[in-house]
Write a structure and sequence with these properties.
The chain is an all-alpha fold. It has a single domain, classed as Hypothetical protein af1432 (Orthogonal Bundle), CATH 1.10.3210. Helix content is 57%, strand content 0%. It contains 8 helices and no strands. α1 runs parallel beside α4, α3 packs across α8 and α7 crosses α8. It is globular. Bound molecules: fe (ii) ion (FE2).
Length: 163
C-alpha cells in the first residue's frame, strides 16, 4: 500500500483534505473523510475480488481516497467536485515519488473514475462504474438520523444493509 500512503502523505492531498475536514466539521449529513473514503475503497476492492475484475488493490484504493478530494473547491467556489477532484488528483499522481508512481494507464483509469463517480455516464469504464456503485453503496441511510432531511432522491437512499 506504499503508493496509496504516498497519496495520503502528499502535501497537496493533505492541504485539500484538512480544508474539507474543517468545512465539514459541523455537517450533519454524510461527510467525506477517511471513514467514507475507506468504506468505498473496501467495498470496491471486495467487489473487484468477488467479480474477478482483477484490479490492482493500490489502483482501487487510490481512486477511492481521491474521489472526493475536490469537495472543498465545491463548497468554497462552487466548482463541481468531480471536475475539481480530477484536476487535484492529476496533480498529485503526477508528482508522487518515483518509487510510488502509478503507470500512465493506471493514472488514466483513476482520473476517469474520479471524474465519473458522481453521475454514471453511458458506457463507463469498469473502474469508473465500480467507484460510482461503491460510493453509493457505502452510505448507511437506513441508520442515518437526518435521513428525512437529506436531499438525496428517496429511491437512491440505502434502506437496508447491503454488500
Ligand atoms: Fe463519495
Amino acid at each position: 500500500m506504499d503508493r496509496v500512503n504516498a497519496i495520503w502523505n502528499h502535501q497537496v492531498y493533505q492541504a485539500y483534505y484538512r480544508r474539507l475536514e474543517k468545512l465539514e466539521e459541523e455537517r450533519r449529513y454524510c461527510r467525506h473523510q477517511m471513514p467514507h473514503l475507506l468504506d468505498v475503497a473496501r467495498i470496491a476492492y471486495i467487489r473487484s475480488l468477488e467479480e474477478n475484475m482483477g484490479f490492482d488493490r493500490d489502483v482501487v484504493y487510490a481512486a477511492a481516497i481521491l474521489h472526493d478530494i475536490g469537495k472543498a473547491p465545491q463548497y468554497e467556489e462552487e466548482i463541481p467536485h468531480e471536475a475539481a477532484g480530477e484536476k487535484i488528483a492529476g496533480e498529485i499522481l503526477d508528482s508522487l515519488p518515483e518509487n510510488a508512481a502509478f503507470s500512465d494507464r493506471e493514472k488514466q483509469m483513476i482520473l476517469t473514475a474520479v471524474r465519473g463517480h458522481r453521475r454514471l455516464r453511458e458506457n463507463p469504464e469498469e473502474l469508473e462504474r465500480l467507484l460510482y456503485e461503491s460510493d453509493k453503496a457505502s452510505r448507511m441511510c437506513f441508520a442515518c438520523p437526518v435521513r428525512e432531511l437529506c436531499d438525496w432522491e428517496e429511491e437512491k437512499k440505502n434502506r437496508e444493509i447491503r454488500a
